[in-house]
Design goal:
The chain is 24% helix and 30% strand. The chain contains four helices and eight strands.
Length: 174
């Protein structure tokens, strides 16, 4: 079996989340060139870090990248290479959370729940395959539970379905 790796939101969704006040401390971020970067846990490798005073509030190996001022210099961090004297500088633009972190944040902060549902399909040769549809539910006061997502159908992977559902939610529901 292949290694199972986390699925992160893309840069576009990261910026949408920043604009919607996503404020969960995490270890990954996108820099100005839209490159996803990750920190080594600070408590384990503190000798590798050279970072600004703004990052001194860094805690538990995570930091809230979205509160950095992208117009000033507070968003520049430096990470020293563990195997050389080289130092890379990154201009942080936004957080790069994992998909489940965003789904939980939408639920806790905005009463929105996203589910992905597999659906069996058959190709022209009669071979079975799966597609994924999206359900988006929102608790809206007197209206109760309201369904969204009827236009989000037939994705090839659950990850693709989640990303489109998150983008839809951030642009049309919040």
């Amino acid at each position: 079996m292949e290694n199972i790796t986390p699925d992160y939101v893309d840069f576009e969704i990261g910026m949408l989340l920043k604009n919607k006040s996503f404020n969960i401390p995490i270890k990954t971020f996108y820099d100005k060139s839209k490159r996803m970067c990750s920190l080594i846990p600070y408590d384990k490798y503190e000798h590798l870090y050279n970072y600004s005073n703004r990052l001194s509030s860094y805690f538990d190996g995570e930091y809230n990248w979205n509160i950095l001022d992208i117009n000033g210099e507070d968003n520049i961090i430096c990470l020293k290479d563990a195997f050389s004297d080289a130092t890379d500088s990154y201009e942080v633009m936004c957080s790069a959370p994992e998909i489940p972190q965003v789904v939980k944040w939408l639920y806790l902060k905005h009463n929105i729940w996203i589910t992905i549902n597999p659906k069996r399909e058959r190709d022209e040769l009669g071979k079975n395959y799966m597609q994924f549809d999206v359900d988006i539910w929102r608790l809206e006061g007197e209206k109760g539970l309201v369904y969204y997502g009827a236009e989000l159908l037939q994705f090839k992977t659950p990850e693709q379905a989640y990303l489109e559902a998150i983008k839809y939610t951030l642009t049309k529901l919040i």
